[in-house]
């Protein structure tokens, strides 16, 4: 049966260099217990590790596979002044994440905290820990994390998709030679920005207009600058960033100033709108911001930071996932045709797929799930446990930083048959592979998983359904291969050139 599925045209080969060999794992009964952390394998020269990290910064996902081949399924390392225990095996990751307490703690992002201390901002949902984090998380989850709440944003998301498709057609016919959408990655970034803004701010930023507003362009440019400078500043102690007067830190701060200003302006505008509505005796709308400002006790200070984080988390993640999705569908026309047939079997010609419609599109959901396995947005994620634990025979003290290597785990041949093969059918309920839930957790796990997960999934389902319904997507250069690179997130290393052919 497995061989039949592998021969099926929907099973797509994804040849990738540096594919990892099967890592032998000692049976649990033979693992030596109660070893001190200092005995854990891993590189010991801190200066050498700093150079290694800098040298491999754009291919960190592949470099971590090489480290696993060298040191095994768990090893210790450091980057600058930040020591880590790296976990590359699904069983260990599951054991680790299931031991999180009431207040799961992320690895501290020192440069983000340093900026907020400098400007007097709240740490927000991402950087808060303990009861403060729980309070914010509970408030936010009631509006955007519960499945029954997500459909309220479907119409506004679809409006943005309609504008995006119109823009695609215009760009294709005016500047793309009637075939391509120039700078596809950037255009999908604009779609994602506009889409999440309609949810968070209940307003449009103008990302999809023919001439983008100057403030919106500055905002997008500042996000790019922030991510570019983040790698360097993350390797230093917070006091070094200001004491040494580094230019990179100055650029980083200026970028954050612009980013935060967008949240400030839109939240303050919403406050004025609410006051005006109340003074006129009008009912308040059910938007996210209205709810946060009137239905919770979250302070504006916390809201500025939390909304900024949600906005950032909801742009690069969904836009890059959609670039990879279109790239893979163009490389595998048989799969694309199956997906088109599924969409058209659920919705009539000219009908816009709704949130309820995509519930009946199993292949569409599996395509997104497989893309997130092959191209996990975050190649690694961090945790800090609040208690001593024993993991794989090592005594690991409270406060140790863990790096959970998602990219490594999704390439594990013990878990995924032919892990480098793009195969959405592996996720079907009647599939031949029994997959551990923790083997692919692109949105994280437990209370600390991505707060915008439900929104991001719905955005991607709706836009993919419309794109497949509207266009046949082809590679401009058949057989062209685009490799991923690590730029904080896993992104295409080269431009993705695709043709968008109108469907009859």
Mean pLDDT, rounded to whole units? 86
Stretches where pLDDT is under 50 for at least 5 consecutive residues are: 1-30
Measured between the Cα atoms of the first and last residue, the distance is 36 Å
CATH architecture: Orthogonal Bundle
Strand content: 5-15%
CATH superfamily: Cytochrome P450
Total domains: 1
Computed structural class: alpha+beta
Find the count of extended strands (DSSP E, 2+ residues): 11
* Main sheet strand line-up: 2-3-7-4
| Major sheet description | 4 strands, mixed
Shape assignment? globular
User: What is the number of helices?
Assistant: 20
Q: Tell me roughly what share of residues is in helical segments.
A: 40-55%
Nearest-angstrom radius of gyration? 23 Å
According to CATH, what is the topology?
Cytochrome p450
Q: What is the CATH C-level name?
A: Mainly Alpha
GO molecular function, one term: iron ion binding
Membrane topology: Peripheral membrane protein
EC number: 1.14.15.6
InterPro entries: CYP11_CYP27_families, Cyt_P450, Cyt_P450_CS, Cyt_P450_E_grp-I, Cyt_P450_sf
Description:
The structure is a single chain. This protein is an alpha+beta fold and 504 residues long. The protein has one domain (2-502): Cytochrome p450 (Orthogonal Bundle), CATH 1.10.630.10. The chain has 20 helices and eleven strands. The strands form four sheets. Strands 2-3-7-4 form a four-stranded mixed beta sheet. A hairpin with a 2-residue loop joins strand 2 (74-79) and strand 3. Helix 12 packs across helix 14 (300-313). The longest helix is centred in the middle third of the chain and has 33 residues, at 247-279. It starts with a helix and ends with a strand. The model is unreliable at 1-30 (pLDDT under 50). Its cofactor is heme. One of its GO terms (biological process) is cholesterol metabolic process. It is found in: Mitochondrion inner membrane. GO terms for molecular function: cholesterol monooxygenase (side-chain-cleaving) activity; heme binding; iron ion binding.
């Amino acid at each position: 049966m497995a061989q039949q599925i592998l021969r099926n045209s929907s099973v797509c080969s994804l040849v990738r260099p540096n594919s990892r060999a099967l890592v032998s794992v000692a049976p649990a009964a033979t693992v030596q217990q109660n070893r001190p952390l200092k005995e854990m394998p891993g590189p010991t020269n801190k200066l050498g590790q700093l150079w290694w990290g800098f040298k491999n910064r754009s291919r960190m996902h592949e470099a971590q596979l090489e480290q696993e081949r060298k040191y095994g399924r768990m090893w210790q390392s450091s980057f600058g002044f930040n020591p880590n225990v790296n976990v590359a095996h699904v069983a260990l990751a599951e054991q680790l994440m299931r031991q999180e307490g009431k207040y799961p703690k992320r690895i501290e992002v020192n440069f983000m905290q340093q900026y907020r201390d400098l400007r007097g901002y709240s740490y927000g949902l991402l950087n808060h820990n303990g009861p403060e984090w729980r309070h914010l998380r509970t408030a936010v989850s009631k509006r955007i994390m519960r499945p029954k709440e997500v459909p309220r944003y479907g119409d506004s998301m679809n409006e943005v998709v309609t504008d995006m498709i119109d823009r695609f057609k215009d760009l294709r016919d005016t500047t793309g030679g009637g075939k391509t959408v120039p700078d596809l990655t950037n255009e999908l970034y604009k779609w994602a920005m506009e889409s999440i803004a309609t949810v968070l701010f209940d307003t449009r930023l103008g990302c999809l207009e023919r001439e983008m507003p100057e403030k919106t362009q500055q905002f997008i440019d500042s996000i790019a600058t922030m991510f570019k400078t983040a790698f360097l500043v993350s390797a230093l102690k917070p006091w070094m960033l200001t004491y040494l007067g580094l230019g990179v830190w100055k650029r980083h701060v200026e970028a954050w100033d612009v980013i935060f200003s967008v949240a400030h302006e839109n939240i303050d505008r919403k406050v004025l709108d609410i006051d005006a509505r109340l003074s006129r005796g009008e009912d308040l709308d059910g938007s996210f911001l209205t709810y946060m400002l009137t239905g919770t006790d979250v302070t504006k200070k916390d809201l500025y930071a939390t909304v900024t984080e949600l906005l950032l988390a909801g742009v690069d993640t969904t836009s890059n996932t959609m670039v990879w999705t279109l790239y893979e569908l163009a490389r595998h026309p048989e799969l694309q045709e199956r997906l088109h047939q599924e969409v058209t079997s659920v919705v009539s010609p000219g009908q816009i797929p709704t949130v309820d419609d995509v519930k009946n599109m199993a292949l569409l959901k599996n395509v997104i799930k497989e893309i997130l396995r092959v191209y996990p947005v975050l190649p690694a994620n961090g945790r800090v446990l609040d208690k001593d634990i024993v993991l794989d025979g090592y005594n690991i003290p409270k406060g140790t930083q863990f790096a959970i290597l998602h990219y490594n785990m999704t390439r594990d041949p013990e878990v995924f048959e032919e892990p480098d093969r793009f195969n959405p059918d592996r996720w079907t309920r009647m599939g031949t592979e029994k997959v551990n839930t923790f083997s692919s957790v692109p949105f994280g796990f437990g209370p600390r998983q991505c707060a915008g997960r439900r929104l991001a999934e719905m955005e991607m389902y709706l836009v993919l359904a419309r794109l497949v319904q509207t266009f046949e997507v082809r590679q401009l250069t058949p057989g062209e291969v685009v490799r991923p690179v690590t730029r904080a997130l896993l992104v295409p290393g080269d431009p993705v050139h695709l043709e968008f052919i109108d469907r009859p």
